[in-house]
Every structure is written in C-alpha cells, then in structure tokens.
Design brief:
Structural class: alpha/beta
CATH superfamily: P-loop containing nucleotide triphosphate hydrolases
Order of helices and strands: EHEHHEHHEHHEH
CATH class: Alpha Beta
Bound molecules: adenosine-5'-triphosphate, the ligand Cc1cn([C@H]2C[C@H](O)[C@@H](COP(=O)(O)O)O2)c(=O)[nH]c1=O
Helix content: 40-55%
Number of domains: 1
Strand order of the largest sheet: 2-3-1-4-5
Number of helices: 8
Radius of gyration: 16 Å
CATH topology: Rossmann fold
Largest sheet: 5 strands, parallel
Length: 214
C-alpha cells in the first residue's frame, strides 16, 4: 500500500505555518486515511539538530554548498525515519517544505544553480518525489514585512535575515519551478486572506485525490 506525499512550499512569510494549522483539521475531518504532518528541515530529532545548525544566526561563515549539503542530509534522514515508513503504511504525508526549497533557496537564491542542487538531492531522495506540491506565492516584500512584524528580532533565523534581493531570487526560482512542473506544482495566491488560502488548498487536494476523501 502506498500513501500520498503532499508538500507545501513558498518564500519566507508566505503563510505556510498558518495554512497548515487551519488546513490539517479540515483534512482530518474528511479524509479516509491518516494524515501525518511534518516539516523540513526537521521532523525527527537528528534533522531538527541539523536545522538548528543551519539556521543559527551566529553561523555567518557557513559556505553555500555546506548549507545545501546540510539541508540534503537532514532530508535524507527525515525521509528514511519518518516519511517513507508513513507512505508505506498508506498515510497521507503533508510536509512543510521539500526539495523545491533547496532548488529555490540554494539553487536560485545562493546562486549555486538549480541543476547542481538537484543532483545532490537526487542522491538524497533516491527517486522519491511529491505527488502534489502547493506553492504559496507572495511578493518578497510582503513576505519579509510579515515576518518582521510577526516575530521578535531575536526569533529571526539566518535565512529570514537575508537581504530583499536574496528573497527576490528565491521567489524567481520558485516561479521557474512552477512553470517547469505544471502537473505537480499548483500555485496559490498567498496574498488572499488566510481562510481563502486554506480553502483553495483544500479544494486542490480534494479535486486531485477524490478517492482518499469520505
Ligand atoms: N494570508 C495571510 N494574510 C496576512 N497575513 C498572513 C497570511 N498568512 C500568514 N500571515 C501572517 O504572516 C506571518 C508569517 O506567517 P507564517 O508563519 O504562517 O508563514 P511561513 O510561510 O510559515 O513563514 P516561514 O517560512 O518564514 O516560517 C504571521 O504573522 C501570520 O499571521
Ligand atoms: C527545506 C529548506 C529550507 N530552507 C530555508 C527556508 C526557510 O528560510 C528555512 C526553514 O524555515 P521554515 O520556518 O521552515 O520556513 O530554511 C532552505 O533554504 N532550503 C531548504 O531545502
């Protein structure tokens, strides 16, 4: 039996955390199968430790390729320990970020190149790809303003505090991924109300996978 792997993507401040908080109970109330919520980098103890290392604002000397490799390492362990067993048990896995984040942030944002970053992730994922990706799109200035308003300065991580031009390159990377993967990635307007974003995502999932709903 094989479950469904659904990923949520978007620039910082797109509203993914708020979306998942509202979407999960809607899905749980109407799915026939168990829902597993998880996130990257993290989701299991080893990968949460790698997350701390990557996002620590004190780690200003971290090399861009080291950063890409750490995200891929956290991903591998998370897949093996949590995502693959859940999919094998027929669960629906809803994951906050996956490989597209590495392609957009390290590939486009850091300028390593999407194909180079894709190759280390092919090694990490060994063929596993999402069944569906919901990309929550926001203008970079809107996303950054949201996180600056919603979080205390000491709660901002090493990526949150990157420049506006870095975040614009990340968004451009995402928009390229949306264009190149029209079957897998559905773009949702993240500048609507939180409730409208939740409804739009629920509708896409229900339309795409009607058999897993009651
Ligand atoms: N659709 C929306 N309209 C207005 N504000 C929003 C919307 N979605 C989220 N927000 C607000 O924006 C801020 C960031 O939201 P949230 O933490 O959900 O984003 P995120 O995508 O998970 O961010 P990050 O990737 O940086 O963790 C929060 O203060 C949240 O209340
Ligand atoms: C998986 C992944 C994440 N990132 C960045 C994106 C965010 O700035 C942080 C994660 O924090 P969030 O609160 O979960 O959004 O890490 C990245 O650059 N590359 C990746 O592969």
């Amino acid at each position: 039996m094989s479950g469904l792997f659904i990923t949520i993507e978007g620039p910082d401040g797109a509203g993914k955390t708020s979306l998942i908080k509202g979407l999960a109970p809607l899905l749980e109330a109407s799915l026939k199968t168990e829902l597993l919520l998880t996130r990257e980098p993290g989701g299991i103890p080893i990968s949460e430790k790698i997350r701390e290392i990557i996002l620590d604002p004190a780690h200003t000397t971290m090399d861009d390729r080291t950063e890409a490799l750490l995200y891929a390492a956290a991903r591998r362990q998370h897949l093996v320990e949590k995502v693959m067993p859940a999919l094998a048990a027929g669960k629906i896995v809803l994951c906050d970020r996956f490989v597209d984040s590495s392609l957009a942030y390290q590939g486009a944002g850091r300028g390593i190149g999407m194909s180079e970053v894709a190759s280390i992730n092919e090694f990490a994922c060994a063929g596993l790809e999402p069944d569906l990706t919901l990309y929550i799109d926001v203008d970079s200035e809107v996303g950054l303003a949201r996180i600056q308003k919603g979080r205390a300065a000491e709660d901002l991580d090493r990526l949150d505090t990157e420049s506006l031009s870095f975040h614009q390159k990340v968004r451009d990377g995402y928009l390229r991924l949306v264009k190149d993967n029209p079957e897998r990635i559905v773009s949702i307007d993240g500048e609507q109300s939180i409730e409208a974003v939740q409804t739009a995502c629920f509708d896409v999932i229900q339309k795409r996978f009607p058999k897993v709903f009651n």
